[in-house]
Amino acid sequence: MKNNGLADTVKQTDFDKMGAELYRVVSDLFPICRSITGDGVRETLQYIKKVVPVELHEISSGTKVFDWTVPKEWNIRDAYVKDSKGKRVIDFNKSNLHVLNYSIPVKKKVSLQELQEHLFTLPEYPDWIPYRTSYYKENWGFCLSHKDFEKLKEDSYEVFVDSTLQNGYLTFGEYFIKGQLPDEVLISTHICHPSLCNDNLSGIAMTALLAKQLSNADLRYSYRFLFIPGTIGSITWLAMNEKNVSKIKHGLVVACVGDAGNFTYKKTRQGNAEIDHVVMNILENSESDFKLIDFFPYGYDERQFCSPGFNLPVGCLMRTPHGEYPEYHTSADDLELVGAKNLAASLKMCFTIVNVLEENKKYINQNPKCEPQLGRRGIYRHIGGHPDSRKFQLAMLWVLNSSDGHHSLVDIAERSGLQFGLISEAAEILAAENLLKESVG
Amino acid sequence: MKNNGLADTVKQTDFDKMGAELYRVVSDLFPICRSITGDGVRETLQYIKKVVPVELHEISSGTKVFDWTVPKEWNIRDAYVKDSKGKRVIDFNKSNLHVLNYSIPVKKKVSLQELQEHLFTLPEYPDWIPYRTSYYKENWGFCLSHKDFEKLKEDSYEVFVDSTLQNGYLTFGEYFIKGQLPDEVLISTHICHPSLCNDNLSGIAMTALLAKQLSNADLRYSYRFLFIPGTIGSITWLAMNEKNVSKIKHGLVVACVGDAGNFTYKKTRQGNAEIDHVVMNILENSESDFKLIDFFPYGYDERQFCSPGFNLPVGCLMRTPHGEYPEYHTSADDLELVGAKNLAASLKMCFTIVNVLEENKKYINQNPKCEPQLGRRGIYRHIGGHPDSRKFQLAMLWVLNSSDGHHSLVDIAERSGLQFGLISEAAEILAAENLLKESVG
Amino acid sequence: MKNNGLADTVKQTDFDKMGAELYRVVSDLFPICRSITGDGVRETLQYIKKVVPVELHEISSGTKVFDWTVPKEWNIRDAYVKDSKGKRVIDFNKSNLHVLNYSIPVKKKVSLQELQEHLFTLPEYPDWIPYRTSYYKENWGFCLSHKDFEKLKEDSYEVFVDSTLQNGYLTFGEYFIKGQLPDEVLISTHICHPSLCNDNLSGIAMTALLAKQLSNADLRYSYRFLFIPGTIGSITWLAMNEKNVSKIKHGLVVACVGDAGNFTYKKTRQGNAEIDHVVMNILENSESDFKLIDFFPYGYDERQFCSPGFNLPVGCLMRTPHGEYPEYHTSADDLELVGAKNLAASLKMCFTIVNVLEENKKYINQNPKCEPQLGRRGIYRHIGGHPDSRKFQLAMLWVLNSSDGHHSLVDIAERSGLQFGLISEAAEILAAENLLKESVG
Question: What is the pTM of this model?
Answer without folding.
Answer: 0.92
